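Run log, item B.
One chain of 657 residues. Sequence copied directly from the ordering sheet:
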Amino acid sequence: MRMRAVSSVITSVGLLLGVMGAPARAVRAQDGGGPSRAPRVAPGSPESFTDQLIVRYSSDARVTAPQAAGADRVEALSAAAGIALQYFRPMSGEAHVLKLPQSLPESEVAQIAARLAAAPDVEYAEPDGRMYPTLTPNDPQYGSQWHYSAPVAGSYGANLPGAWDITTGITSVVVAVLDTGILFDHPDLAGRTVPGYDMIADIAVANDGGGRDADASDPGDWVAQGECYTTPTPNPANDSSWHGTHVAGTIGAASDNGDGVAGINWSARILPVRVLGKCGGYVSDIADGITWAAGLPVAGLPANPNPARVINMSLGGSGACGTYQAVIDAATAAGSMIVAAAGNSNLNASGFRPANCNNVVTVAATNRFGNKASYSNFGSVVEIAAPGGEGGADGVLSTLNAGTTSPAGHSYAYYAGTSMATPHVAGIASLLWSVEPTLTVADATAILRGTVTPFPTGSTCNTGNCGSGIVNAAAAVQLADVWATLTNKVYLPLAAKSLGGGGGGSLVPNGNFESGATVWAESSSQGYFLILQDSEVNSVPAHSGTWHTWLGGVYDEVAFIQQSVTVSAGQPHLYYYEWTRSTEPGTGFDTGSVRVNGAPVRAVDFSTSTASNAWVMRTVDLSAYVGQTVMLQFYMTTDSSLHSSWFIDDVGFQGTP
């Protein structure tokens, strides 16, 4: 029998041992035997921390901000959570943000959220995770902007010169930059903006002496060692990145002015929306930033009189799309295109948000030679690639500042990252609306993806991992210029934000678990991985492929997997395969349930008499949720004696029970 380390979810000592390798070992039983599961902290990187939760009440219990902040309601939530909570603020999508007493590992906060989600009046609860700029900084130096050039062997730029022969942009197009803010007085950005907003509600993160306000300038995001987290090892000290200023320069630096660098759109206005500060930024602030940038109302904030046609999100973090999806859908419906970085972890982008959200144009990074940049995330959720560079003069040159903490002298520098690739796509998208203002988001997306430069022969990018090709500005603008006259328009399908399912119905993202834990959020109160390969489970093979989920099999466990799914009218019946085992003599001791927005829609009892001891297909009618994006959850609790296990595989939707 294989063994695994015990992972503490309470003490910092437990977390430290989980990463460094604790000598103490414990067996996880499964009817007398079990697999090895690693602690939930990713090897080689610290676990993300947060001190905030997002909670949305169910429709029949929906409350106003004053009601949600009431002492009785907060006390009730605190009791359900098992920890003292403090009401912080309302947010987009009729949700609310609550503060924890201190920053905790996101896996711990997920367990607290699971307890809140079980409350009858709560639709969903999730950690208010932190997002980070998706860049790989390099030493500043001046040089040519190869990333704008026409694509030739050995230098695969985005082909801007041919586009500029047709248009250099118009002032009525607005591009939002959700980032660290910008430096308005940079000589290549002065006069290029419309009034933005600082969305950062936490004063320490904002680092400008206040919370939310109309000043979207960047005061610097430098951090001292240990300022963001201290376990398993303190975060390193970092200078200010001026990340938003670099991104904004790529999109719209003043051009043809005999100074500095060129931007992609010479006339469009930049809408700075500050959502990242010290130690990154909260999902709740970013979600409100998307909503406001699209011209939609955000409680407590003035209306945005300059809605963005394009919203650039050169940021991201791990996890399922979650809270983002509803606000992204609303922004898209309002006419805003969301362009997001795939991420810089050299992993499947399906595990990173907002890259894995629907209605997002997800961008991978290529280097000068047309290969996948070494750091770039990849996978089927990527729509398109763009130059992100590698390092030094092979990076992306744009506007910056020389200050290591607060702003100092303005400068220019090379950065590399999917953060740098993303504004290439956002800027080129803004040129499309400059020549054809009637384009829909679907039109613009189809044009971008249908006019790409093919990946060169032998490239480490292909249409399966880096999208349809490398963005080509000249070809895209040429097509947009005649789009209104075309009668037969071809729309490439959007990159599927799903990775497989189990049956003949529609796919639940990664419903067969063959991409591991990507897309799914998983939480175990005992600190175990829940989505496993066959080699990690002693006696139950996957229903299909080699991966499946295992809940239970250990004492005193609260465990679940969850993700957001959309229930369609044509296929409203959830199906999944389960294998149940138990040594309990009767039901009611160990329990499981399929939940939608925290409410059970199917109960699972565990006992020797009810155990299936084989794979069995189950269906659940979710017709009541047709047209809704809901939180689907498989949830299990176990008591302090005997063992029960619930194995799950091949989750999807179909038209009939």
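Observations after the first pass:
- The chain has three domains: 49-128, 132-485, 506-654.
- The first helix runs from residue 12 to 20.
Flagged for discussion on Thursday.
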